[in-house]
């Protein structure tokens, strides 16, 4: 099933993002959570990998396990960081051989301790180059790219950021999955700007349920995601872990309802290898746009 075909009907397509666990116990726990998440009939799962490609092999193992459990399509993240074109092609060949269906193509963050991304000799500098490589040599793989409703933190302005996104789409991307955001107005403005710029692929909002205030603050700092005043005030008003979880899940649930009411093609949930928050916010919802 092609990646873009998940977004062709009236159902709001759901997908979940995982990351490679570090232990055998973590993998077992992940498998249990994947089974729980399947209750919501996701279209596919994605899996990230560690900085600089440090867990690429584990990523493919996780995706193989997910496919075994669910019989659903799976997507591997892939970045340009620390890799030559030859190494990227080698990974793509291995991913294809192991049954990976889609690639989330990213430039990747600069290595820790550095401020500027520098391509290795024989490597790629931009995500659109990676998309072009996949599209031209691995046309069987669906391609997702990242979009930034609040503008990528390295971009000088929104216009430049949007131009970079259009280059990725023009190079062959099938869909855009957005960076997490906590105020839907940021997504809607971004979507409108994409349409005005001639970007006509599905723009899938990315949602991360906040389950504690410290987590919210840390993520906001790391991803430059603005936390709405009401959410910040409510979570800061209590130190009770269960209450903070309830507040964060309810906020993500309201985001979900509002997004579906405004005809999003799907929603991508960053679940941090857990299922409690996603299960709580999705329970009982009819995700039909």
From TrEMBL:
Its EC number is 1.5.1.54. It comes from the Bacteria. Its cofactor is FAD. One of its GO terms (biological process) is methionine biosynthetic process. Keywords: Amino-acid biosynthesis, FAD, Flavoprotein, Methionine biosynthesis, NAD, Oxidoreductase. InterPro entries: FAD-linked_oxidoreductase-like, Mehydrof_redctse-like, MTHF_reductase_bac. GO terms for cellular component: cytosol. Belongs to the methylenetetrahydrofolate reductase family. It catalyses: (6S)-5-methyl-5,6,7,8-tetrahydrofolate + NAD(+) = (6R)-5,10-methylene-5,6,7,8-tetrahydrofolate + NADH + H(+). This is Methylenetetrahydrofolate reductase. It comes from Rubripirellula lacrimiformis. Pathway: One-carbon metabolism; tetrahydrofolate interconversion; Amino-acid biosynthesis; L-methionine biosynthesis via de novo pathway. One of its GO terms (molecular function) is methylenetetrahydrofolate reductase (NADH) activity.
């Amino acid at each position: 099933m092609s990646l873009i075909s998940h977004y062709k009907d009236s159902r709001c397509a759901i997908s979940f993002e995982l990351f490679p666990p570090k232990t055998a116990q973590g993998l077992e726990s992940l498998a249990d959570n994947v089974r729980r998440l399947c209750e919501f009939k996701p279209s596919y799962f994605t899996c990230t990998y560690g900085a600089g490609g440090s867990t690429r092999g584990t990523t493919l193992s996780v995706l193989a396990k997910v496919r075994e459990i669910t019989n659903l399509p799976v997507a591997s993240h892939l970045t340009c960081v620390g890799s030559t074109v030859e190494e990227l092609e080698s990974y793509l060949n291995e991913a294809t051989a192991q049954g990976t269906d889609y690639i989330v193509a990213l430039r990747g963050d600069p290595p820790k301790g550095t401020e500027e991304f520098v391509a290795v000799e024989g490597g790629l500098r931009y995500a659109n180059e990676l998309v072009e490589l996949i599209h031209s040599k691995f046309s069987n793989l669906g391609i997702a790219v990242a979009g930034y409703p609040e503008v990528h933190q390295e971009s000088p302005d929104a216009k430049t950021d949007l131009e970079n996104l259009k280059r990725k789409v023009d190079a062959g991307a099938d869909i855009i999955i957005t960076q997490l955001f906590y105020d839907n107005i940021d997504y809607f403005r971004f979507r409108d700007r994409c349409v005005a710029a001639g970007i006509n692929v599905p723009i899938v909002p990315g949602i991360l349920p906040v389950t504690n205030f410290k987590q919210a603050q840390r993520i906001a700092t790391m991803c430059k995601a603005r936390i709405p005043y009401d959410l910040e005030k409510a979570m800061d008003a209590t130190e009770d872990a269960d209450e903070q979880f309830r507040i964060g899940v309810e906020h993500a649930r309201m985001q979900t309802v509002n997004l579906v009411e405004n005809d999003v093609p799907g929603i991508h949930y960053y679940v941090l290898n857990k299922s409690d928050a996603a299960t709580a916010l999705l329970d009982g919802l009819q995700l039909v746009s």
